[in-house]
Amino acid sequence: MKSAFYEKVKNVKYYASKKYKIACKEGCYHIKNIKPKNLVVYESIKDAISDGCRLCKDCNKSNELGKYFVNEMIKQYEKSQLN
Question: Is the pTM above the cut of 0.85?
């Protein structure tokens, strides 16, 4: 069963740099600094984390996703890998 929190943010996209492996939430002002050749789009933070990215420090501290969401997604990802 997925939490209401997950349902609220499941459609958020993440944009990351191939070079730095830092994922920004859709709308983050750091996205404009990513060169087009390095831009990767992820459908979820789970996808970004599984590809080796971490969440942008500004996104992590300035929006409601924060550490809670990242930790929950990591837990869900680890559980899915065990099955």
Answer: no
